[in-house]
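Q: Sequence in, structure out?
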Amino acid sequence: MRSDKVKIAVFVSGGGTNLQALIDAQRAGRLPSGEIALVVSSNPRAYAIDRAVDAGIPAVTVCRKEVGEQFEGELIRVLEKHGIEMIVLAGFMSILSADFISRYPQRIINIHPSLIPSFCGKGMYGLHVHEAALAYGVKVSGATVHYVNEIPDGGKIILQKAVRVRQDDTPESLQKRIMKQAEWNILPRATQLVAKKLLKERKGEQSL
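A: Exactly. Output:
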């Protein structure tokens, strides 16, 4: 029997601050349509795994270096085993193929630390994004949650939040402020929006 919530897998590679924002939102009742049922890390040493364990969420590691060409096949096996219906990329450092993405249409979302279409695409991740923003001299940056398609950072935008850039900002200070003021705010909200939509679609199927 299916749960009355959409089962969500959060894909991570590092510290898991956005994962923690999702866990906190779930505890506070701000994720009523979804349930974080699995955390998948591409890095066996990611602190995000500890965050999952502390929250009582199953966590698995699928490392491309270890499984090679079987990487996405192993991801799919793990997702199916846990009945996952939606994927949230929260600092996941492996690019997913078009074939993988096509298995989960409008069911994979990503958080990006800029206002897309600025400072996004290939090579734009982590501090590189904020270095580019400061080098360009923008006065406003922020974060974007978007659907994932075959183009890096190219899917339809779900939510954005702007953050003002200060004259004395460094890439590190800008990164920290965007996380606190934008990322940790809009990622849980967007996750709930998409989970609610998927739940409505599922209930529509069941009523046919």
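The chain has seven helices and seven strands.
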